[in-house]
Inverse folding.
């Protein structure tokens, strides 16, 4: 029997799929990229454009149930994007999106290790207090 998923889980999956399947162009970068990567670079000051049309889009800066939302913007609000222009660089040469994911992972591991150390120290302190209490009894 298949596992029944909640509406919240279904919405999260739909948002995840949209972020990975929707393709966009990112200013200064060669090729097409996932919307998820486009959002990361949008908040780093890059423009993003619908693939394949090349129309500029902006990310709507509030949370919605179905994930990332974007809207078209006036063409004058962003420079024209030419996908075959010389001077575009491959995104992996910058890798800011990848580096931010690595940094978040390292921060999470450091935080988990810190919590584990605090827990161990608290347990040791409790053990010492219990041991001292027994010695005085």
């Amino acid at each position: 029997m298949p596992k029944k998923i909640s509406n919240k889980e279904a919405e999260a999956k739909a948002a995840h799929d949209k972020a990975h399947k929707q393709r966009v162009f990112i200013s200064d970068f060669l090729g097409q990229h996932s919307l998820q990567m486009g959002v990361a670079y949008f908040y780093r000051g890059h423009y993003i454009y619908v693939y394949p049309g090349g129309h500029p889009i902006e990310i709507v800066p509030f949370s919605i149930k179905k994930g990332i939302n974007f809207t078209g913007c006036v063409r004058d609000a962003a420079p024209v994007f030419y996908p075959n222009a010389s001077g575009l660089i491959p995104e992996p040469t910058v890798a800011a999106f990848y580096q931010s994911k690595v940094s978040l992972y390292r921060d999470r591991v450091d935080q988990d290790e810190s919590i584990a150390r605090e827990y161990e120290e608290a347990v040791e302190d409790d053990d010492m207090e219990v041991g001292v209490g027994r010695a005085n009894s």
Notes: The CA atoms of residues 18 and 118 lie 40 Å apart. The first strand starts at residue 23 and ends at 26.
